[in-house]
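Q: My collaborator sent me two sequences in one message, no labels, and asked for predicted structures for both. Can we handle them in order? The first one she listed is below.
A: Yes, handling them in the order given. First sequence, followed by its structure tokens:
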Amino acid sequence: MHWYQWTLFVLIIKNSAEAGPEVIEYEAGTDLRSPLYCRVEHINEARWMKGLEMLTFGNKSFDSSMSIVCKGTGDYHLNITKMTSSDNGTYTCSDGSRKEIRSYTLNVKAEATIGEGKYSGPTVHSNEGETVQLWCNATGYPKPEISWYTLERTSSEQEKGTYLGISGSMLGIHNVTRECATKFQCQAINSYRMDKPVTRNITLIVKFSPEICVTNKLRDRCITNNGTLKGKPGEKLELICYVYASPLANVSWLRHDTLIGEYIGVTNETKKSEVSNPYVYTETSKYDESKKQTSFSLVITLDTDQTFTSYHCQAVNDMGSNRMTIVIKRNTKS
């Protein structure tokens, strides 16, 4: 399934466009290009505020990097030197009546960054059928643009990004399927000294109950449940149980209700039952991470009447269980 077959949505929170303070951009370490302009009637009672913090009162400044510039009667301009990111904020000038006269917002220019704790995290888990929201919050000024990609490995084992055509701080996927389990990447960039974006990778793991396909060594297609195979005494018959599951499933082979062997998914360990005759049954297991698929092979030596019977492949994980039965009958044809 391709990305464009998924149901995707993006949530972008925008502030309403309201008239506000004049915006001034600056670079860290520099002086304000020109003082913040303000004219008042009574300088001795005038003040500059940053939020609720008083910066000046009359000609007195409470910060060594700030000073009042008076070029004429009523001038009450604020100058700031050696500015840092802490100078970000909204500045207001008021006279003795505390009525706001002028207002400015100062923003320091900074490259886009996506800090730790500012995105969904390296791994996100979801059950099949749920809705998932992946998010990525970038900081910087001018405001960064965020774009979403999927990452896939090429034949040369390189990761290739595919643009999803979606931008914004949040990516949502409705009705998640196992085909959605892949690596996503959010990219953030702005116009300040950036040649390439900063990125964060988010791997989506989709959990689902086991699916089983049992094949015979000589047949590629899946055998139907309660399907029948025939063999002759002395023959060796190999059954391969393919289990597709997330998280990893424990897979068992049983004769009737007697355990022959078991594959423990968490530890990648194969265990043989004490009641199993090693000369009659042998098992081998293999796990394919890219396919989320376990293959558990059972080789049966048809040497006694007890070996011509029903065999079950059973798989269990946190999401559920599944079972497939194969019946082996004696081939009476010569």
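Q: And the one she listed second?
A: Here it is, processed independently of the first:
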Amino acid sequence: MLEELVAAGAEGLVLLQDSVSCEGRTLLKSFVAASARRGESVHVINFDVPEEGFKAGFTPEVASRLFIHDGFRDPLGWSGAGSGLTVRDFSAPQLVLRLSQAAQGPATLVLDSLSWLILRLPFPSVCQVLAQLPKKANIAGVRIRTLVALLHGDLHPPEQLKALHALARAVVTLKQGDGGPRVAVTLHRKRRNKVVQKKEYFTVLPGFALKHLGEPSPAAVSGEVTEKDDATDVADPTANLTFNLRLSEAERRAKESVPLPYQFSDEKKSSLLQGPTGQGKIYYEPDAADDIDDEDPDDDLDV
């Protein structure tokens, strides 16, 4: 699914969540290269790495479709040069203005990284820009088909990650495999509220082409014990109980032979299956403990 997501792109926000143990910029460049090959213009807002570092490794064909909005040189605007991007420019109107000057046809917007912005701007305002930017750009005649953002997951509390995941069309969480290639856990929200999740091994080839390497077992990702792991004994939580939670075969048959309460008699079943006769009937089925005396029907009353 990751290979398909990179090749075809997604309509909306795509989050690439990495960590210290598993970097995600290489996969981010795979999205960039695939968008350029589809003929889209790619706008990169870079704060984490310089422009030369981000462009490294791309073919001339891909590099020619990149528009770098450099926020690395002077992110806080201290030099006063005014040529680069600053943190104050991260607003929907400012970004739309920059995109409209160069965008032609469908565009992909890349944030490297979203974490840099979240650590320096109010979190609600960052979420607001992410939600409003595609609509405002569309009004200005710029179609942002995909917004790909690199997110360093270990820098943010779970509440912020949960809010960002809710905004995204797709979330790719990167994990380091157990002595093997990296693992991508992809959550893709497709149309008609269909949600697809998949775990898979992958690698990035020269030129940032993505290659699928198969799917890992659950234990390879989470470290959990599977039924096939004979080296570890799994404790039975019901082993030391003072009562039995399971029925023997004889107990099960005895249980099934007991009639259920309020079961209909054959007479009542037959009457209910017949058509209406115009007369009401009252059925009384005495219990085993009932003591009925026909001569004195009120002998159970204390009068």
